[in-house]
Amino acid sequence: MSYIDIVPIGELDETLLLFLRQSIFQTFKIQSRVRHCRFDLSPVYDPVRNQYNSSGLLLQLISDTPPETLKILGVTELDLFIPIFTFLFGEAQLNGIGALVSTHRLHNQFYGIPENKELLKNRLLKESIHELGHTFGLIHCFALKCVMKSSTYVEEIDQKSINFCRVCEQKIIHW
Amino acid sequence: MNNQGVGILVVDDEFSVRDSLYNWFKTEGYRTDTAENGMEALKKLQENPWDIVLLDIKMPGMDGVELQRHIKKIDNTIVVIMITAYATVDTAVETMKEGAYDYLSKPVDPDKLSILIRNAVSQRRLMAENIQLRQKVEELSLQDEIVGESPQIKKILEMVDTVAKTDATVLIRGESGTGKELVAQAIHGKSNRRYFPIISINCGAFPEGLLESELFGHEKGAFTGAQYKRKGKLEMANGGTIFFDEIGNITTKMQMDLLRVIEAKQFTPLGSNKVVNVDFRIVAATNSDLEKKVSEQDFREDLYYRLNVFSIQIPPLRERTADIALIARHFLEKYARSMNKAVTDISPEAMKMLTEYNWPGNIRELRNTIERALVVVGKKNRIESEDLNLLFLSRANPPGNSLEEMEKAHIQRILEQSDWNISRSAETLKIDRVTLYNKIKKYGLQR
To answer: Per CATH, which fold does B403-443 belong to?
Structure first.
């Protein structure tokens, strides 16, 4: 049996992980499981930016992948960056195995407004499906409500749905 | 709109920057590649077409500024976006003066990059569209609608080519139906003003008051019935060409107003107190004898000299009979296509009638004749003499009433019946060959 592994990086609320496990199965119709790994954060930490290099973390995430793992989704509270960008909500390997999402900038608190746990779960799910979608070969979609629509700020995540548009859905089915 | 087909080349000596931008653009659906230095970038620019190049300013060897110059030489329409560290922002601004579209300071806000690339793609698409439209305009304006191979028409085409490139005022003269407007369009189409409109105005078609408002425009309420503000044709022609047809027919007051506009390139719309500045080229046409009108003081001399800077005289069709067959075939092809008819030819008899006719209505009359023939031709695949209208037949080369004119027409007819066999014609005419030669010479008869 093949799995989509959900791998927490650092401390994470267990209920969030459980919610992701169930929702990802519903979306991709592939069994998912939570798998714990050890990470060495020191080489990916940039003290000047006070952020973590997403690409470096992604490389650690996909090393030592069990043979039954189809895709890996890393989930973290850490603030991610890649050298050219100020921040990232997540990163994935197009047509690859690994995807990574950060909840850091999905919290309302980050923007100075009261926390909303349901909204956080919703945003995390959309970004997780989005990044996993890239590992299935999907590129950004122009359909307004499609989960594969690019989001560069949090309001854009709220505007799209958790679903694939018909075109993207067909691509996933025929993957 | 999707990003497929849009090519982005990332040029940066830092692997992490190349790699992260490559991945970002791939997920956005762009065709992407990277280059580590200027030389590699130039190689990739020659191998494939690129729409956008993201270029690091500081690179070992050829830097981004120098590379941008090379890129602009290869293809001036490629959108170049500079990538810069904080310290090189001034340089980035400098590169924009040399044609860079914008610059990004590292690290980039993803949202900013996304918007910047989207705008750059739109700009690139607009540029491509603009180039296509310009090519279309070139094609349309260079379509040679002036048909003919006679020395007269070749000379006119040469004159059009010469004068089109200047901004000189042109006066086109010729009988009604000779194609004066076509010549005006050809001048405009070959001029540097071709991307702006050519506005035609038939001066003979408007009573004085109306011509004034047509030319200068008017404000709301300028006169009874002026319910809305309206732009005049002079303003509409701004940047392009204004074609005054039948210029000989304008009133004295209008001549004065027009002279003022031509000299000052500004005017005031009716009912307005604002002066409008305009820039246009003037092409005028007339079939009247302007010199006679000037001598009779019906046409202002100063306006005449203003208009008659470069004159093109179009000969009537009867003076270039060698072109008739060519023009007739041109109209046949044109109208057969538009009427969806499979008519491809004109019978020798019908063609003979066409070339013998004196065409008082010139090309316009020939065009109407062919168009009408195509309507009545039925299912035949060529125009026969009976398809040419009766009015046309009855008017074909009517000889004058004098004995000389009758004799000339008769000799011409007999010569053509015998296919210009002099002995046979002389026999039919019951005159000797020398006399026939003398008559041919006297009347200037030609085969």
So the answer is: Arc Repressor Mutant, subunit A (1.10.10)
